[in-house]
Amino acid sequence: MDTSLDADARADLLAAAMTFDQKVGLFANPGIPIPELGVPSRREKDGANGLASNAHESTAFPSGVAMASTWDTEMPYAFGAQGAQEAWEVGYSGWAAPAADMTRSPYHGRQWSSYGEDPLLGGRLPAAVVEGVKSIDGVYALPKHTVANTQESQRLTLNNVMDLRTLREVYVRQWEPIIAAAPGALMCAFPRLMGDYSCDHDLLNNQIIKGDLGFEGWISSDYSACESVQAYNLGTDFCGPEGVNGEALGQAVLDGVIPMERFDDMVHRVLRTFFEDGLMDHLPPGALESVQPQLAVSEATLARGREIAYRAGVEGSVLLKNDDILPLDANAIDSIALIGENTDRFLQGFGADSIPLPAHVTTIQEGIEARVGDGVTMTKVDGTDPLRVADGSLPGPAPIPSSVLSAGGSSGLQAQWFTNPTWSGNPLVARIEDQVNWGNGLPMVFATFGSETSPAPDVPPAFFANPQPSIRWSGQLTPVASGTYDLGLSLLGSARLWVDGEEVLSVDADRIDTQTVSLDLVAGQSYDVRIDYVADAPNQCCGVAGNRIGPAIRLLWTPPVDDYSPQIQEAVEAARNADVAVVVASEYLGEAIDRGSITLPQGQDALIRAVAAVNPNTVVVLATGGAVAVPWLDDVAGLFEVWYPGQEQGRIVASLLFGDEDFSGRLPQSWPVSDDQVVNGLGLTNPVYDINNLNVQLQHDEGVYVGYKRYDQLGLEPQFAFGYGLTYSTVEYRRLQVQERGGNQPAHIRVQVRNRGSVEVTETVQIYHGALPTSVDTPSRQLLGWDKVTLAPGQQRWVDIPIELDTPERLLSYFDAGRNEWVRPKGTVQIYAGASERDVRLTGSLRVR
């Protein structure tokens, strides 16, 4: 307990005083405290966007992609310190944050929690979270997931196939600044990497992370992600919660399966973190008790969390279009139509990164009402049915909405769930369901412990593990417009669809398939509808298996008009009679399932087009987990993205709408135009079609060309470029200076900028470098650095961006796989300064010596 000694020395002294059984207790689940030696329990809590506790109210922060959109290390630092303080106050020693999964594909289900597509931005900002956590004695950061965790579909079995250069130059490169920030532990991922499971990976864990990168903490598995006891010998230091740990681990050591020298290293790593991150000197409350006490985060801490969450949401929001409509003038508006089924509830994704008990929530509706007061009439209309997991997990057109379906006098269809594949006997569950739209997978289990916030129906618990359930839906379909409709099914399994007693479609799909039939329907006429479905595809059962989707079917349509439902028609009337229409459009992303399309679900594209057609003052607020297609962009006057904005969502949206806050966020990911551009242009596979394939070989054929580098390589134009974001002013880039320094001194890139507008503006000045001076193929443009500057009207300033080459990010270098080393080629590289990766304002050059 001599604080003058370093963490390694203190850990060695403590280990020498411990018995073998006490050491083994460190690796129980949770760790067993040793009160007589002052050693705390190793208690950890998930939640990459706050403390994900079902027992404690905590601050729900904006999602990781929103944090990344700030392009500001100060905000992630504040988030890390706040989250660590909340974890400490309720007795946790470790917090599983941040999430740093590279956004390789816009289909990735967990991209909402992560930090974008560039290893420099996506490494420095999570590193700032770690540094924030470390500022609070008594809690260690547990960042996740090392590495290349870029797909949720079949995450327990898939194999990421890539070459060594791609691994080091893209995915490990992102983690180098995070590891340099010295988190107490790292979480290895579920999938295989180049053939071996990530937690059972000698090259990744021993040679790279602990060897080349010098990581001194311990590596912990994702949930039971160790393949075998050999994971310990392959670099993982704790496997849990299931598998070999605790007493079984001790026996493996005694049997020689795990060498004693390796076990001693594991013990040292855990104890070292306990000292390095202050646990031994600043014990979390109850850390020496075998049962965690029931505690609460203090009101003062939660009040501070509110303001951090608010600032992060404001600074992470991105203005994408503004035809002189924003900011709104509340004094000049008499009426607002607020449209969106999600405006009166908390918006977030699902899974381990979600916050079940946000301490305080201001809905978007509440935020706008509070801002405008009684002087403005606001009409709130849903426009669509609630979002649900299946909206993301199944591709294809929108589901048929509840407002044109009926059964027994209620909106929706009568559903009968059977525990057999033949619809035999009495159904175990019979109820009215708003839509035929299922595909929940593991999130059906998340729903039972509060991590699914959608108000849509849940899978009946009795069907979680049912091997081949059958379901029958029946009722009437009554369209509100006459014309030719494409009716169909998107599903995994087998189904038959009847309309007015005639079978119009029969589908037997061993992989997810979408089939439609064209039918002429008459407005106001009711048609009998029946669907018989069996979830009988190979590897389909069951959601509790973690990587199985379970029942998966959508009754869908493509109508001939945009105002195809009473819900949309109600929204159109509200918009027609309002001065301004504000449409809040969203999607529902999360763990264990990727999304099947970047199209907004639940027919929101049709809703937006229909509203914009009657009100030229339509503003769309996107609250999404990642990039979405915006085919109606030319039809609306304003568009901005708030991502999943956290508990202060109403305050954030209202302050941005009415100009109480300015926009300063920039996109941390490129936005594709459409699914076709993603699949056929970028060449990225849609993962949902492999949802029941137990041997997915995920080919990273793009190599180092991830994100904007791939667009550049193929000459494709994204909808919105990496780094894009508008402001309320015009910033002129006037001069560029490159100041080269010798030795270990950093080069300095200086950009002179001037605010030519009449309002204050915050500009993110971005620096990119061109292809490296080598015969090796390298990207034509890569992020090199950036800085934010606030300018008063007419103000001019120089922005100085130091370029330090000897940093963990390996700037101006490429990885030579043959020599197994980084190479910084000497010569001249182009330098680009601008407002985004595609908006280059000034160019220069830099000599690399």
Q: Please, could you describe this protein's structure?
A:
Keywords: Hydrolase. InterPro entries: Cellulose_deg_GH3, Fn3-like, GH, Glyco_hydro_3_C, Glyco_hydro_3_C_sf, Glyco_hydro_3_N, Glyco_hydro_3_N_sf, Ig-like_fold. This is Glycoside hydrolase family 3 C-terminal domain-containing protein. It comes from Propioniciclava soli. GO terms for molecular function: hydrolase activity. This protein folds into 4 domains: 280 residues, TIM Barrel; 216 residues, Glycoside hydrolase family 3 C-terminal domain (Rossmann fold); 166 residues, Sandwich (Jelly Rolls); 122 residues, Immunoglobulins (Immunoglobulin-like, Sandwich). Helix 5 packs parallel to helix 6. The strands form 8 sheets. Strands 13, 14, 15, 16, 17, 18, 19, 20, 21 and 22 form a 10-stranded antiparallel beta sheet that branches. The chain has a 6-stranded mixed beta sheet with strand order 10-25-24-23-11-12, covered by helices on one side. It is an alpha/beta fold. Strand 7 and strand 8 form a beta hairpin. Helices cover 22% and strands 24% of the residues. The protein contains 18 helices and 35 strands.
Assess the beta-strand content as a share of residues. Answer: 15-25%
Give a short account of the largest sheet. Answer: 10 strands, antiparallel
The CATH top-level class label of the largest domain: Alpha Beta
CATH superfamily of the largest domain: Glycoside hydrolase, family 3, N-terminal domain
Helix content: 10-25%
Mean pLDDT: 96
**What is the C-alpha radius of gyration, as a whole number of Å?**
27 Å
CATH topology of the largest domain: TIM Barrel
